[in-house]
Hints:
By secondary structure, this protein is an all-alpha fold. Helices cover 77% and strands 0% of the residues. It has 7 helices and no strands.
Amino acid sequence: MTAWRDAPLLDAGVIAQLQADLEADELAEILAAFAADIHSRADQLAAALAAGDAELAHRAAHSLKGAALNLGRQRLGLICAHFQHAGQADIKALWPEFATICDAVLAAQGQTGLAFEVDSSIVRA
């Protein structure tokens, strides 16, 4: 299943609703917290895969999926949904694509810098 590849990076409807429901500074705070979440969950996922801990990997993917979809980051949410049920080899194979999606989400939020290194420990493991 590769539904994330066909999904828009951002869900315009969800974003419009968030903008209607929240003050600009509130939304900015939420997006900053989400950026930090991308970093920490990606690190958790990498560590879990490096340690061979499938349960922790699936939990990290699940947490990031929920936050991403709630904030209209559809492509990221859908690849994380795939990761929830994928094996380690599949996640490792998709790691560069996951990194690209994370970076695109951060850029769309006006944040610069990579979410994490594409050449992480799980890719080399």
